[in-house]
Amino acid sequence: MMRSKFLSLLIRAPSVCRSMSTATKLTTIDVNDKTGIATLTLNRSPINALNVELLQDLNESIKEIEDNKSRGLILTSSNDKVFSAGLDLNEMYRPDKDRARLLWIKLQDVWLALYSCDLPTAAAINGYAPAGGCLLATVCEYRVMLPKCRIGFNETQLGIVPPIFCMFNFLNVLPRRVAERSLSQGQMFTTEQALQIGLVDDVVSSKGEALDKCTKFIDTFAKVNPLARSLAKQQFRAADLQRFQTERAKDLESFLAFINHPQMQEGLGIYLNSLKKKQQLNAV
Ligand SMILES: CCCCCCCCCCCC/C=C/CC(=O)SCCNC(=O)CCNC(=O)[C@H](O)C(C)(C)COP(=O)(O)OP(=O)(O)OC[C@H]1O[C@@H](n2cnc3c(N)ncnc32)[C@H](O)[C@@H]1OP(=O)(O)O
């Protein structure tokens, strides 16, 4: 009797989360001891702009989660309005050459780590996800998003050619025609539009609900052999990964040439200024 009561208490005990990372990082990892699923949170204030350090921490966290044999990875943000603002434009404006090189290499590494991740991956998009933010969301296998946000690759709107990994992500998620049009037009979709075209799988009303949906998605693999699941995923992605490896060095040089171009620098300066001006206007 005592034993069964004890057992039932154990069964009903709330799930416990373990933190795996130190507080000095720009990412945090919480592993739910009950589900074995790791939540990886972007935590660079104010808008999770992807700089060298955040990308470095993301890479380390993904590896940590894989090494610790978690059952799945959920990517989210600590900011309640912005999932990620994409690449930190300050890293590209009047750049330090070595840092700019490192920035792109680290971005490529993050994409590669998530695209080829052995675990099921899901994104709880709890805010705006432009450009690099959209890259992080669409590299995952499943997405849920909060209402009244926007997501998309706005690169061409900024005069930037979207790198090939943006194309791979979109082609995995959208019909080819829609992927091509949205990338070449630099379209940003509202949450509702994103749901309509299949860019996100579901819309939820809170971050908690987003994390629950992501957990449920990862749970759909509970009865599938992990090795078979992982190899099936690799099979689908192998050709993209091969093409990426062939083009990665050229992609890096294109990025560096592009951001060092005087016209690009001028455009970036104007764009950064317009973002700051927006804040000044809001304050009036
Ligand atoms: C064969 C191979 C070919 C390969 C070719 C390769 C070619 C390579 C080309 C190069 C590719 C470069 C790729 C770039 C991808 C990117 O990710 S670029 C980044 C794009 N991001 C954006 O455009 C986002 C812009 N920001 C916003 O829309 C908004 O800020 C927001 C919706 C994210 C958040 O809005 P809100 O909460 O209202 O905050 P704000 O007041 O707007 O911003 C606060 C603060 O942050 C600054 N800021 C915003 N975004 C960025 C950013 N991405 N980087 C740096 N800083 C940013 C903003 O100015 C405010 O600053 P102050 O507080 O005023 O100083």
TrEMBL record:
<dbReference type="Pfam" id="PF00378">
    <property type="entry name" value="ECH_1"/>
</dbReference>
<keyword id="KW-0007">Acetylation</keyword>
<keyword id="KW-0496">Mitochondrion</keyword>
<dbReference type="GO" id="GO:0005759">
    <property type="term" value="C:mitochondrial matrix"/>
</dbReference>
<protein>
    <recommendedName>
        <fullName>Enoyl-CoA delta isomerase 1, mitochondrial</fullName>
    </recommendedName>
</protein>
<keyword id="KW-0809">Transit peptide</keyword>
<keyword id="KW-0413">Isomerase</keyword>
<comment type="subunit">
    <text>Homotrimer.</text>
</comment>
<dbReference type="GO" id="GO:0006635">
    <property type="term" value="P:fatty acid beta-oxidation"/>
</dbReference>
<dbReference type="GO" id="GO:0004165">
    <property type="term" value="F:delta(3)-delta(2)-enoyl-CoA isomerase activity"/>
</dbReference>
<keyword id="KW-0443">Lipid metabolism</keyword>
<keyword id="KW-0276">Fatty acid metabolism</keyword>
<dbReference type="InterPro" id="IPR029045">
    <property type="entry name" value="ClpP/crotonase-like_dom_sf"/>
</dbReference>
<dbReference type="InterPro" id="IPR001753">
    <property type="entry name" value="Enoyl-CoA_hydra/iso"/>
</dbReference>
<comment type="function">
    <text>Key enzyme of fatty acid beta-oxidation. Able to isomerize both 3-cis (3Z) and 3-trans (3E) double bonds into the 2-trans (2E) form in a range of enoyl-CoA species, with a preference for (3Z)-enoyl-CoAs over (3E)-enoyl-CoAs. The catalytic efficiency of this enzyme is not affected by the fatty acyl chain length.</text>
</comment>
<comment type="pathway">
    <text>Lipid metabolism; fatty acid beta-oxidation.</text>
</comment>
